[in-house]
């Protein structure tokens, strides 16, 4: 088994250890595990502030465990395999971020729609959608980062907008559909972190499209 | 003793690997107990049992609401009813086959469906196969997310002539919707086609008609559609709107796609319809104008097919010819002009008739003036109104169903307890998946908030819901001889479709009728 996250590796090895001897499982308390998990995540950038609501990804991790118990093992394995199988085109999104090399961490801050800031140290080349999703920020990425949905709309609020490579026609075309478009709007899935963008701050627009008058406009 | 044990965060990728590794070592049954006891926020004070939600419709509105409700109400249990044996609504039967990236949202829907708190009940048409009121005793809330299963008519003479199709039927046909499996449009009838309406559906229709059939072979378009398209004689497609280019409903990406089709030229639009100085236009209109005035990549002299956008024409009648009675040969339009108080370059500009007409020859016409939701039997018994004119279930903008009689006073509207809606049946048949998602999230937030605040839900006025959900309904389904399709069943259909696709070198070959789908399961 190749578990790529060092932090996950620790949690998971504890799980499988206890799996081997169920009687010993009570000795590995989960709070301890969590402790190990956070402490050991030295490559995993620290969050400047925590998001307390249990969001989708951790929920999903839990579901995997629930499945493990409830389903006959064949279904279980099928479930494990099925997650990516469904996409009709290759998805640029991936489960992991590249760990930044020591000394090469780039800082990026997301301001969520409640106005709370979340800062992370990330690697060159990571795109904003992957980063937001890895940290369970509220960014949907409905088309899986294929520049076809505009649900990853972000607004650049630091001075970095002009330092980014210009959006191409495809990105601009999707931005035209984004709700609350501004002069410094970008699609998160198309913006890759780079040295010049160290310190980037982006705002996640609040999702209020459905309440806009334009939707009820009578022609 | 541990009181609060949180699930440690394990990223999805690692979880998958762990799961398969444990399985290899036959250890999957042990130890996971430890991870189940996450604190259950939001457990409802009134009852010890979970919150039970029935969702009618499995399109993006149904799935995104399920996702958000299950995220916000941690013990919510969702049953999703779908009238077809296969899920995803217009993502499967609307989104064009050459836009596979749009369908990536299915990945999220599949994650939702993989939760043990979610149940898919396909092949059950609520209101027809099973009475809607029979759901009520067993749920705390019902969400209507059944989309728009009809389309608007023009109500002009000749609409039923041979050769006049609704875009919904054509789109359904090439996407394998059982309702239109046998449409087989007469694409060999002639070279000239008119599409009425200028939304994105109209451009989808034009693009499928003009795209070389080889470019579609690897998509999930049906084999039957490929065969018919391969024999098509269509050479020119006119996309006709009743207002001007600044009011057209299509979006830039779709227009650009048509401009870039190989060997398809675009006939330039009358430049007087655009402002003299386009730099003054707002961003969206400016960029669209640039695309429209630049025109196609292919030139008229080398292209084998062409298309154009005709503006300020309102359809008056579809006509046949004496030599071919009953079949379309031309379409008459009334010329329109902007009303004196309208700015022609404003998005909301209005038009009025000039009294003059023009006629285009056409052997095929597609009516693409919008989809339409309809009422389902049993709504009235549940006090759920339906606005026939707007084609929506009346709601506050958050998706709570509103009934004019439910308010506190004689003349005030109020919410109907436990009834919610989302998607096209909530706000009308417009909006892309992103807007349907936002809208579904708003409905889900309202449901979660209402549940937390203990406002009245279904059956609050009597002893409360049985909380049985589908278990309470399935006897009724059995009595009626229904064959419900579970998520596992759908996965078998899905697998069979992919295998059929593989055999002919494409992503998937859809089954186009319900009995074929069920045969996969019951043979
Ligand atoms: C032709 C076409 C192409 C489109 N292409 C795009 C695109 O490329 N990109 C994009 O972003 N958006 C696109 N859209 C828009 C997008 O499809 C919609 O925004 C979205 O699907 C609306 O979701 P919904 O869940 O409200 O309805 P639907 O997707 O229609 O889902 C409704 C579901 O309810 C089911 N149902 C109906 N009645 C009952 C009943 N009585 N009992 C049980 N189930 C029932 C239906 O079978 C269906 O599965 C397109 C729309 C169309 C029409
Ligand atoms: N690729 C995509 O993203 C994609 C693809 C397909 C669909 N969709 C979305 O799905 C939704 C539905 O699309 P749609 O094309 O069905 O609807 P739409 O966008 O509402 O367009 C309907 C068109 O029909 C015209 N029309 C309506 N009544 C008419 C009449 N009586 N006579 C003449 N013309 C009439 C409208 O003109 P007026 O403006 O003058 O009323 C408009 O041009 C849209 O939001 C669309 O964006 C998206
Ligand atoms: S994720 Fe769809 S456009 Fe970025």
Automatic annotation (TrEMBL), chain A:
PANTHER family given in the database record: FERREDOXIN-2, MITOCHONDRIAL, FERREDOXIN/ADRENODOXIN
Protein name: Ferredoxin
GO cellular component, one term: mitochondrion
GO molecular function annotations of the record: 2 iron, 2 sulfur cluster binding; electron transfer activity; metal ion binding
Keyword Amino-acid biosynthesis annotated: no
InterPro entries: 2Fe-2S_ferredoxin-like_sf, 2Fe-2S_ferredoxin-type, Adrenodoxin-like, Adrenodoxin_Fe-S_BS, Beta-grasp_dom_sf
Keywords: 2Fe-2S, Iron, Iron-sulfur, Metal-binding
Record carries keyword Iron-sulfur: yes
Pfam families: Fer2
Protein species of origin: Lepidopterella palustris CBS 459.81
UniProtKB/TrEMBL annotation, chain B:
GO cellular component: mitochondrion
Catalytic reactions of this protein: 2 reduced [adrenodoxin] + NADP(+) + H(+) = 2 oxidized [adrenodoxin] + NADPH
Binding positions (FAD): 61, 82, 90, 126, 424, 431-433
Alphabetized InterPro entries for the sequence: FAD/NAD-bd_sf, FAD/NAD-binding_dom, Ferredox_Rdtase, Ferredox_Rdtase_adrenod
Positions of the FAD/NAD(P)-binding domain: 52-209
Major place of residence: mitochondrion
Listed Gene3D superfamilies: FAD/NAD(P)-binding domain, NAD(P)-binding Rossmann-like Domain
Cofactor (UniProt): FAD
EC number(s) stated in the UniProt entry for this protein: 1.18.1.6
UniProtKB keywords: FAD, Flavoprotein, Mitochondrion, NADP, Oxidoreductase
Subcellular location: Mitochondrion
GO terms of molecular function: oxidoreductase activity
SUPFAM superfamilies: Nucleotide-binding domain
EC class: oxidoreductase
Pfam families: Pyr_redox_2 (PF07992)
Positions annotated to bind NADP(+): 198-201, 242-243, 254, 431
Family note: Belongs to the ferredoxin--NADP reductase type 1 family.
Name of the protein described by the UniProt record: NADPH:adrenodoxin oxidoreductase, mitochondrial
Organism annotation: Lepidopterella palustris CBS 459.81
């Amino acid at each position: 088994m190749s578990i790529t996250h060092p932090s996950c590796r620790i949690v998971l090895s504890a799980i499988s250890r206890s799996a081997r001897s169920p009687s010993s499982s009570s000795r590995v308390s989960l709070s301890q595990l969590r402790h190990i998990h956070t402490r050991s995540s030295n490559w995993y950038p620290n969050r400047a502030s925590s998001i307390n609501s249990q969001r989708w990804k951790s929920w999903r991790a839990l579901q995997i465990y629930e499945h493990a118990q409830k389903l006959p093992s064949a279904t279980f394995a099928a479930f494990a395999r099925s997650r990516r199988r469904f996409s009709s085109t290759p998805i640029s999104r991936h489960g992991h971020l590249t760990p930044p090399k020591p000394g090469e961490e780039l800082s990026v801050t997301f301001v969520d729609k409640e106005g709370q800031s979340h800062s992370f140290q990330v690697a060159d080349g990571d795109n904003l959608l992957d980063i937001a999703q890895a940290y369970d920020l509220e960014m949907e990425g409905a088309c899986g980062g294929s520049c076809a949905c505009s649900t990853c709309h972000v607004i650049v609020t630091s001075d970095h907008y002009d330092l980014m490579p210009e959006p191409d026609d495809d990105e601009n075309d999707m931005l035209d559909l984004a709700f609350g478009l501004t002069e410094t709007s970008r699609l998160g899935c198309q913006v890759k972190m780079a040295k010049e963008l160290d310190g980037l701050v982006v705002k996640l627009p609040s999702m209020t499209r459905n309440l806009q008058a334009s939707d009820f406009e009578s022609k | 003793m541990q009181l609060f044990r949180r699930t440690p965060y394990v990223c999805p990728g690692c979880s998958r690997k762990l799961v398969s590794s444990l399985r290899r070592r036959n250890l999957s049954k042990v130890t996971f107990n430890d991870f189940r006891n996450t604190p259950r926020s939001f457990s409802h004070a009134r009852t010890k049992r979970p919150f039970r939600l029935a969702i009618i419709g499995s399109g993006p509105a149904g799935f995104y609401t399920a996702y958000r409700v299950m995220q916000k109400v941690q013990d919510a249990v969702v049953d999703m009813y779908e009238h077809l044996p296969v899920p995803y609504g217009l993502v499967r039967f609307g989104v064009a086959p050459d836009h596979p990236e749009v369908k990536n949202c299915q990945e999220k829907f599949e994650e939702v469906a993989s939760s043990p708190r979610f149940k898919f009940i396909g092949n059950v048409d609520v209101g027809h196969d099973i009475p809607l009121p029979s759901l009520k005793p067993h749920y705390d809330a019902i969400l209507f997310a059944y989309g728009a299963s009809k389309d608007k008519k023009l109500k002009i003479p000749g609409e039923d002539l041979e050769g006049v199709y609704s875009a919904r039927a054509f789109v359904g046909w090439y996407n394998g919707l059982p309702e239109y499996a046998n449409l087989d449009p007469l694409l060999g009838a002639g070279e000239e086609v008119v599409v009425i309406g200028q939304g994105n559906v109209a451009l989808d229709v034009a693009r499928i008609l003009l795209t070389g059939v080889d470019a579609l072979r690897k998509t999930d378009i049906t084999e039957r559609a490929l065969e018919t398209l391969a024999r098509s004689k269509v050479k020119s497609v006119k996309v006709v709107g009743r207002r001007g280019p600044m009011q057209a409903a299509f979006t830039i990406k779709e227009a650009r796609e048509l401009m870039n089709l190989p060997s398809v030229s675009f006939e330039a639009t009358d430049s007087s319809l655009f402002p003299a100085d386009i730099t003054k236009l707002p961003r969206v209109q400016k960029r669209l104008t640039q695309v429209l005035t630049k025109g196609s990549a292919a030139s008229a002299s080398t292209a084998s097919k062409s298309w154009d956008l005709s503006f300020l024409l309102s359809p008056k009648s579809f006509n046949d010819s004496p030599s071919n009675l009953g079949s379309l040969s031309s379409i008459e339009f009334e010329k329109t002009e902007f009303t004196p108080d309208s700015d022609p370059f404003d998005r909301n500009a209005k038009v009025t008739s000039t009294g003059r007409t023009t006629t285009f020859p056409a052997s095929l016409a597609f009516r693409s003036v919008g989809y339409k939701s309809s009422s389902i039997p049993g709504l009235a018994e549940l006090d759920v109104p339906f606005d026939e004119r707007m084609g929506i279930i009346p709601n506050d903008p958050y998706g709570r169903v509103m009934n004019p009689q439910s308010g506190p006073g004689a003349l005030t509207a109020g919410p109907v307890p436990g009834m919610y809606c989302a998607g096209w049946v909530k706000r009308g048949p417009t909006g892309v998946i992103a807007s349907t998602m936002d809208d579904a999230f708003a409905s889900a937030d309202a449901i979660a908030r209402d549940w937390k605040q203990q406002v009245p839900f279904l059956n609050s006025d009597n002893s409360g819901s049985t909380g049985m959900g589908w278990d309470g309904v399935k006897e009724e389904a059995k009595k009626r001889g229904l064959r419900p399709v579970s998520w596992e069943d759908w996965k078998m259909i899905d697998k069979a479709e992919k295998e059929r696709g593989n055999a002919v070198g494409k992503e998937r070959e859809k089954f186009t009728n319900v009995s074929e789908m069920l045969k996969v399961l019951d043979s």
